[in-house]
Amino acid sequence: MSGAGRTGSLGDMSNPIPATSPDPASPDPAARPAPEPVPVRGWLAAAVVALGTFTVVTAEMMPVGLLTPMGGALGVSPGTAGLTLTITGFVAAVAAPPATLVAGRLDRRTVLVLTSVMLAAANLVAAAAPGFAVMVAARVLVGVAMGFLWTFAVGVAPRLVPAHAAAKATAIVFSGVAVASVLGVPLGTFLSGLAGWRAAFAAVAGLALVTAAAMALLLPRLPAEGPVRVGGVLGTLRVPAVRAGLALTALLVAGHFAAYTYVRPALEQALGAGAALIGALLLVYGVAGVVGNFTAGALVGRGPRRVLVAIGAVLAVVMPLVPLLGATGVGAVVVMVVWGLAYGGVSVSTTSWTTTAAGPAREAASGLLVGVFNAAIGGGALMGGAVVNAVSPAGAMLLGGGLALAALATALLARSPGRQA
Description:
Layout: H1 40-61, H2 67-74, H3 78-81, H4 83-95, H5 99-103, H6 108-128, H7 132-156, H8 166-195, H9 197-218, H10 230-235, H11 240-260, H12 263-271, H13 275-299, H14 304-318, H15 322-325, H16 329-343, H17 346-358, H18 362-390, H19 393-413
């Protein structure tokens, strides 16, 4: 506590301390000053950044529901069309770490607005693409926009509200990801059925423009927090707790996608389920993920370690159980709900760990975190695919559980970043 927080001394009786004055250092919760109220504009700012994360994740995942018609129109197989998703993820992984260096001293509100405009332009190009090469170029732009928007969305979330509400604001920002997983791709697929796959990309472009306008109106000025240097970005890696946070992110995300990418064939083998039931189970998973995101956001302010220990333990158990519990309808629902609740808290808790550990360099750490996150998505899916080809979908569930177990060990053994403000 700084000297400004002191009210006087026993020797200064000309200005005695009133007997009823609360002592900020008192262990009595009733004697502590009430937390600073959060202005409505702060929550609106967090919500508009969440709209940005919703839009960019929807844009990233849009090809999932459009592969067949898109591939047919562009003259490629659905498998080749699927590369548009892989390309976006890996470009985002490369673009995120140097994002703070490229943005330099630009106001972060300006960066977020320009990034949303770039996302709109990329999706307009995708909607009008005459061939696969142009579509790939558009998806590269989506990847760049994704890397930048994620980096700065993570970095600005705690700056939009008072310190005591930072974890909740971060959870709101990450809710855009969870909601996009539940609604974004299905809505795009539905729109594609009504008006064609190009209309789905055009709709995302329109949403990105709305997001840019909302950010320009509702976000406060967000100047860069300090000098931006290559050494500053790389210097965050010298902090042991930052390295641990990145390792936790890599293990949990890779483990999840090693298993989740192949959960449909795993459930089909275990349950004999058709597409409709699988779709319902994935919707249940998505809704549980939204709940898990906000639950973790409420708990992570007390310390991210215990949240990540719980997540690692649950995922290490639940993913390998999919082939067993998934053999019945009730078991399949239970396993998908528990999986969704646990993984829904990964983004907010790993972000809390890593940015808390980085301290003033949290923006640079955010870029590294986003890069690791996106690389882990692609790497996990590749590892899971190799196991599926060599063994079975059940083997991919075991691989996911093993990586989650490694994350649990990392969370238990790593140096804690400390409590969040």
